[in-house]
Amino acid sequence: MLSIFNKEISGFLNSLVAYITIGVFLLVMGLLLWVFPDSSILEYGYAGLDSLFNTAPYLFMFLIPAITMRTFAEESREGTFELLATRPLTDWHIVLGKYLASLMIVLFALLPTLIYYITVYHLGAVKGNIDTGAVIGSYIGLFLLGAAFVSIGIFASAITNNQIIAFTIAVFLCFFCFIGFDSISQLLSLQTVDTYITALGINEHYQSISRGVLDTRDLVYFLSFIAVFLVITKTILGGRKW
Q1: What sign does the dihedral 147-158-63-202 (CA atoms) show?
Q2: DSSP string covering 37-78
Q3: pLDDT at residue 89 tops 80
Q4: 214 Cβ neighbours under 8 A, 6+ residues apart
Q5: What is the CB neighbour count within 10 angstroms for residue 193?
Q6: What's the Cα-to-Cα distance from 42 to each of 7, 26, 46, 135, 138, rounded to whole Å?
Q7: What is the C-alpha to C-alpha distance for residues 199 and 178, in angstroms, rounded to an integer?
Q8: Residue 79, by phi and psi: left (phi above 0), alpha (psi -120 to 50) or beta?
Q9: Among 13-22, 44-53, 68-77, 130-139, the least confident range
Q10: Contact 120, 49 (CB under 8 A)
């Protein structure tokens, strides 16, 4: 698994894909947080990073599929998956190696945003007048959200050998899993079970963690969500090797 992890990280860092996607993510995030008045932190009137954690999930819907679209699709297109399958590696080694490498790239994209917290911390009318606990909880929620989107991304990459198709499928699934269940729960015919339908979506659990409270149910949800997509991806790989 470590060899796959190192190979994927090297592949990302030796190409412009990771740098461009991360650069665009940070640029758009910076513009939304500091320039555009509708979402600018400076227009809030209080020290907080709410706009960061409200906007980042929608940017993740495009950033993460752009990172993960090449994980398996490129292997299939170039015919190197057969070589990979002949190595003394299990399907789980391959899946987890690629998953953790993609998740590491997402973490690299998140780390520079800490400068926003430091900036707000020092810009407050009273230095340090920011709810640090809520910020930590929000970052944990954002990381778990990214981990869930990565599992969707590598699943989408495993079912096709076309990176564009993998990107499109991943964007759709990320969007649906994040807010699709919220929209479905608002249908008049489903109002009696709207709470249960909403609980199936990622947004409900992301918002819960973002309030700074780490509920075991939310952690179990994210871990189960990730596990389901990883198991499906592993099953697809097993069928392809067979």
Answers
A1: negative
A2: TTT-GGGTSS---HHHHHHHHHHHHHHHHHHHTTTTHHHHHH
A3: no
A4: 137, 140
A5: 10
A6: 42, 18, 8, 17, 20
A7: 11
A8: left
A9: 44-53
A10: yes
pTM, whole model, 2 decimals?
0.88
Read off the pLDDT band of 170 (50, 70, 90): very high
Q: How far is CA 7 from CA 62, 73, 84, 101, 236, in A?
A: 23, 15, 11, 9, 21
Residue type, 153: G
Q: Choose among 231, 11, 221: nearest CA to 105.
A: 11
Which residues span the domain enclosing 123?
2-241
The structure tokens 């398996």 sit at 72
The dihedral through the CA atoms of 131, 105, 64, 144 has a sign that is negative
Q: Which residue has the tokens 């990172």?
A: 67
Q: What is the widest separation between alpha-carbon atoms in the chain?
A: 64
Tell which phi-psi region holds residue 133, choosing left (phi > 0), alpha (psi between -120 and 50) or beta. Answer: alpha
Q: Answer yes or no: are the C-beta atoms of 167 and 102 closer than 8 Å.
A: no
